[in-house]
Amino acid sequence: MLIKRSLVIAVLVFLGVTQAHADAGFYVDPDSSPALWVRAHQADPRAPRIAESIANVPMARWFGNWSGDVHKAVKRFVDKADATHREPILVAYNIPHRDCGGASAGGVGDAPAYQVWIDAFSRGLGNRRAIVIVEPDSTAQLDCFKTDGERDERLGLLRYAVSRFHLNAPAADVYLDGGNAHWVPAAAMAARLNAAGLSEARGFALNVSNFYTTEESAAYAYSVNAALAAQFGYSKPFVVDTSRNGKGSDGQWCNPPGRMIGARTSGASGAMLPVWIKVPGNSDGPCGSAPTSPAGAFSPELAVRLIDGD
């Protein structure tokens, strides 16, 4: 029998999650793609608006195959954040078969290479405070694998990642990605997250790079937590990516027009922590309202559309 939402919330309050980030200041990345664009285009009339509405907001830095020596890259980033006495937000995005061959295809070549990479990532954090989102879409995309062996390998790599962060970066709050509110049924996602090592992580992340409202995401999170409590005897706090959910979703995922930036990164509200994980203005791929922009490339046109809700 599913546990009622009120009981789940009570459990989470007992665990202390309501105060985990309430007083934390989050790091504004001066080298995010929108910030770099603004500095390089100060005469552009769009620059002040992009600076105020996007570049000056705390958001995640993504690390993957483009990061070079990931230990040095992570350490450099968290060292800068530590010098400002602010908490950085990082995304690990380099698992084999990333995005199942889609617009963000890539990742390291095999499981041993990923273990080396994630170990280096976690050691780069050291004992610094940080929020780490582990491998967006990785649990939701289990269905793209054809065999149980492939799915087991993916889950094993996620468990390995959680264990290395626990060992090498004990002050980091690690969140396993849990897809979005309209992808995998809550009970199935709870089972996947548990198999991926959620019991040893801080919590799970929802809506990464997607557009569903915070209310939809929170309702789904409560359902996942109810299933976790019923099946495995525990519940977890959760992160919601609010970077582009100001108008909700129209069912499209790749640079859809008419979307809008959402509530800025802030402290926890109950069990939920709203965070900008996707960088607004970074393309989802060569599609939608940015047909020539590859995945991850910053587009000022996309950024202004998100500011205006066009």
From TrEMBL:
What Pfam families would the database entry show?
A: Glyco_hydro_6 (PF01341)
The residues that cross the membrane are none
Q: What is this protein called?
A: Glucanase
The residue range of the signal peptide is 1-22
Q: Which GO terms describe its molecular function?
A: hydrolase activity, hydrolyzing O-glycosyl compounds
The similarity comment for this entry is:
Belongs to the glycosyl hydrolase family 6.
- What is the active site of this protein? D99, D137 (proton donor), D284 (proton acceptor)
The EC designation for this entry is 3.2.1.-
Q: Where does substrate bind?
A: W62, W183, N210, W253, K278
The alphabetical list of record keywords is: Carbohydrate metabolism, Cellulose degradation, Disulfide bond, Glycosidase, Hydrolase, Polysaccharide degradation, Signal
